[in-house]
């Protein structure tokens, strides 16, 4: 950055600090932040009126910090290099001036301090520091450099959210600093307390409670790179309790019956959608992506290995206008209605990133793009892949050319499963089956999935409905509009299997849930 840029950001920090309204100040004081701390950290706000987190358009994933507290980010020379906007109610919870939320906030306190506290929330770091604990916040999956010398020879205490995602992030951070730190400890917060800020807001004796938790961590919670599963029990319990209270829910697909089958919708893991060509996999997948973005408000990264972004966009517009996609592609539209629909659909596209796959697209590059979406939105995207069999891992390697196709698919599925686990997201991918398998019915189609079904969390087969599924029946059924289809859940790792009836309006490219028989 130039000196002019540093000056501009510093002036912007002052601007937001001057806009800290009584409503925001009251919120901070209620959480335990003192007036002195507000000044020390130069905490500001962007609030034209109303309560914190409620005046911002929640559909806006970029732009200003309206409705948020604003925290300046300083480098080691104490220059303001970025701004973090935070709201406990809005999504994404964090936004930054730079567009990246992979930030270590209050980093400068680490080098001169011992012990050091790391947490996963900005307010957590502020309150811990206020109470005499040198604390930095590791935001949105940011990891310290492996064996960072600033941690050398020190005690490092991790005070992360108590749920499973928080615990897993804590373990990842611990693994990065354990090589140089004298010792790394994981502090387990009381049940229902989501972070240090919660602890200070809920308990008048929070300082004494935290001191006790730190002592307990020193005795029992020292991080080891390889340790028994007992270290995860608290996080597992918290995750189940959150699900019981509805705090941890699946992502709706926009298909209610499918959501029920999936125990609430999509969750972290690998989902495979298989069928023979021409059954509507791409159409169903694009509709599902649009519904996730529109209904759930979750970002979607859509990788197409065959169709262009324009063709996919045309499919979506055709579905909304109830026209054949070819009419959109050929410009046979009513201009006024077309503009109205595209304007409405543009709101959905704020949450959709479409990648056109090519020879350079790999699982590794897809993972990088998913992290970029996360950094921009503050949310884990649903990653959708149309054409799993065309997606390579990374560099092909010397043995790639001689490996059978099934072997490559297994490797790609394993890599996608690991990506889903690492990023905490749902990955949904299509698998194309041979037309010849249709002659032997669902059992023949399912047999093609044997090599990869053990890796996936959910495997679904899209097929025609009917008493048999030979090629003549398939052709006759697909000629109908709507066609009677079945989404058959062949595997559901954490739920039940079963068949869901669908109607496929092929001309306009729309799937709806049906009520016909699903018997093969």
Describe this structure in words.
By secondary structure, the protein is an alpha/beta fold. Helices cover 38% and strands 19% of the residues. The strands form 3 sheets. Strands 12-11-13-14-10-15-16-17-18 form a 9-stranded mixed β-sheet, sandwiched between helices. Helix 10 packs across helix 11 (309-321) and helix 11 (309-321) packs across helix 13. The protein is globular and about 75 Å long. The protein starts with a helix and ends in a 7-residue tail after the last strand. The model is unreliable at 49-63 and 397-404 (pLDDT under 50).
Strand order of the largest sheet: 12-11-13-14-10-15-16-17-18
**Main beta sheet strand tally, sense and closure:** 9 strands, mixed
From the N-terminal CA to the C-terminal CA, the straight-line distance is 64 Å
Would you tell me the structural class of the helices and strands? alpha/beta
Number of helices: 18
Low-confidence stretches: 49-63, 397-404
* Rounded radius of gyration (Å): 26 Å
Number of strands: 18
Strand residue percentage: 15-25%
Query: What level of helicity do the residues show?
Result: 25-40%
**What would the average pLDDT be, to the nearest integer?**
85
**Which descriptor suits the 3D outline?**
globular
Provide a short characterization of the protein structure:
The model is unreliable at 49-63 and 397-404 (pLDDT under 50). The chain is an alpha/beta fold and 520 residues long. The longest helix is centred in the last third of the chain and has 19 residues, at 405-423.
């Amino acid at each position: 950055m130039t000196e002019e840029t540093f000056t501009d950001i510093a002036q912007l920090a002052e601007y937001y600090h001057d806009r800290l309204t009584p409503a925001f100040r009251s919120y901070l004081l209620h959480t335990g932040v003192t007036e002195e701390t507000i000044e020390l950290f130069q905490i500001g706000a962007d609030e034209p009126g109303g309560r914190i987190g409620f005046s911002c358009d929640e559909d806006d994933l970029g732009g200003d910090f309206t409705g948020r507290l604003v925290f300046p980010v300083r480098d080691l020379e104490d220059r303001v290099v970025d701004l973090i906007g935070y709201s406990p109610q809005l999504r994404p919870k964090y936004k930054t001036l730079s567009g990246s939320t992979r930030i270590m906030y209050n980093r400068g306190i680490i080098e001169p301090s011992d012990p050091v506290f790391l947490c996963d929330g900005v307010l957590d770091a502020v309150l811990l520091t206020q109470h005499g604990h040198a604390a930095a916040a590791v935001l949105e999956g940011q990891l310290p450099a492996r064996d960072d010398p600033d941690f050398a020879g020190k005690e490092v205490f991790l005070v992360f959210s108590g749920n499973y995602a928080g615990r897993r992030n804590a373990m990842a951070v611990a693994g990065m600093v354990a090589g140089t730190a004298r010792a790394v400890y994981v502090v387990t917060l009381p049940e229902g307390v989501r972070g240090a800020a919660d602890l200070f807001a809920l308990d008048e004796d929070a300082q004494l409670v935290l001191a006790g938790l730190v002592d307990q961590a020193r005795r029992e919670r020292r991080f080891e790179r390889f340790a028994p599963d007992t270290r995860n029990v608290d996080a597992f319990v918290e995750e189940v309790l959150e699900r019981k209270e509805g705090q941890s829910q699946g992502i709706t697909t926009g298909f209610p019956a499918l959501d029920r089958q999936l125990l609430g919708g999509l969750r972290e893991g690998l989902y495979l959608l298989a069928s023979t060509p021409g059954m509507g996999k791409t159409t169903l997948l694009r509709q599902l992506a649009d519904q996730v973005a529109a209904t759930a408000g979750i970002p979607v990264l859509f990788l197409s290995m065959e169709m262009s972004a324009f063709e996919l966009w045309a499919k979506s517009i055709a579905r909304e206008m109830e026209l054949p996609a070819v009419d959109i592609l050929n410009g046979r539209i009513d201009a006024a209605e077309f503009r109205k629909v595209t304007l409405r659909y543009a709101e959905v596209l704020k949450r959709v990133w479409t990648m056109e796959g090519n020879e350079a697209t790999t699982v590794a590059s897809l993972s990088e793009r998913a992290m970029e979406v996360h950094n921009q939105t503050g949310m884990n995207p649903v990653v959708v892949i149309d054409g799993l069999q065309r997606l390579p891992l990374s560099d092909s390697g010397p043995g790639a050319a001689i490996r059978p196709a099934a072997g490559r698919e297994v490797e790609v599925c394993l890599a996608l499963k690991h990506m889903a686990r690492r990023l905490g997201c749902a990955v949904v991918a299509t698998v194309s089956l041979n037309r010849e398998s249709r002659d032997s019915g669902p059992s023949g189609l399912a047999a093609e999935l044997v090599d990869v079904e053990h890796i996936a969390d959910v495997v679904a087969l899209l097929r025609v409905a009917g008493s048999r599924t030979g090629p003549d029946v398939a052709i006759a059924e697909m000629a109908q509009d709507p066609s009677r289809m079945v989404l058959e859940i062949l595997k559901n790792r954490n739920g039940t299997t079963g068949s869901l009836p669908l109607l496929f309006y092929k001309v306009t490219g729309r799937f709806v849930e049906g009520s016909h028989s699903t018997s093969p």
